[in-house]
Amino acid sequence: MPLCTMRQMVDHARKKKYGVGAYNVNNMEQIQAIMAAAKETQSPVIIQASKGALEYTNLIYLKHLMAAAVEENPELPICVHLDHGPNLKTCQEAIALGFTSVMIDGSIDYDTKTPEGKHPARSFADNVRVTKEVVDYAHQFGVSVEGELGTLGGIEDETHTDKVLLTEPSQVEEFVKTTGVDALALAIGTSHGAYKFKHEPVLAMDLITECRKRAPDTAFVMHGSSSVPQELVAEVNKYGGKMPNAMGVPIASIQEAVRRGIQKINVDTDGRMAITAAIRKVFMEKPGEFDPRKYLGPARDALQALIASKMRDFGTAGHAGDYRVKSLRAMKSFYAKH
Ligand code: G3H
Ligand code: 13P
Ligand code: ZN
Fold this sequence. Notes:
This protein is 49% helix and 13% strand. By secondary structure, it is α/β, with parallel strands linked by helices. It has one domain: Alpha-Beta Barrel (TIM Barrel), CATH 3.20.20.70. It has an eight-stranded parallel beta barrel with strand order 1-2-3-4-5-6-7-8, surrounded by eight helices. Helix 2 crosses helix 12, helix 5 runs parallel beside helix 6 and helix 7 packs across helix 8. The protein is globular and about 60 Å long. It binds glyceraldehyde-3-phosphate, 1,3-dihydroxyacetonephosphate (13P) and zinc ion (ZN). The site of zinc ion has 4 residues, from loops.
């Protein structure tokens, strides 16, 4: 069963108590690396593309690269997801491309700007309205939907939106019931990018437990889950990079978040760093190199190693087979009835 909805995956992850990584992709090498890691560790996988990724690849190229991943890996459960959909129109575009899951980031109004040039945070009522609109549309096609309550830092920080707010647990039940979302992104203090915490990471872990009580049947998502490993920062800088020291989300915190109720774990930045370190290394060590395969190849290998270790750390490894058994059972019972 190669193509899955996000709902199928997160429901399975919730039942079996593991986290499933959602990894951002923009090009062939990233998709190949993530798929190779999923194959190596026998993991279900969510490959996700942002609006920026869709624009960068001109939609149609990404669609066919995603399709290639599915065709090449008929044994692996794969979900193709739109990350941070800004509005219904972009979600509709992703659904038309064949995505099996979309996120509507209704916490921020991406279509409006304040006089200071920032996107305003949406009110709860407005977030409910836009999210429900996407759910009503997507569910007609069997496509899963992720919503968001609260705002993160990074792409949604003070430079981008006018407010950074943690999720308010008292709003969770009403949001989930009224919108019908399959998964909900919680803002617990993480942010996007490589500069999440200047010192010790501070995360509102209790908030996950609190929200889990309010919405026992909805999957929860943790954005901004890159760990920004210090070895990787050092590696980038060793080869001429200039990344300041900052901290990401420790693996132990992600594992605790999974125990408390997170199922989907979004990672982009760590992958970008692994790719950058590998390319910088080639350019520093072999300044005469100009065959793109000679630097994109090592970048792909480095990304595969990074994602495979995350799949093991998140507990995803080894779960691909569970889906096969399930679909085999479904097939057997189908043929028994027909
Ligand atoms: O959530 C943000 C992801 O890292 C995607 O970033 O919008 O630059 O593609 P992007
Ligand atoms: P990072 O920047 O921590 O990798 O987060 C990515 C993300 O949340 C994508 O939606
Ligand atoms: Zn995100």
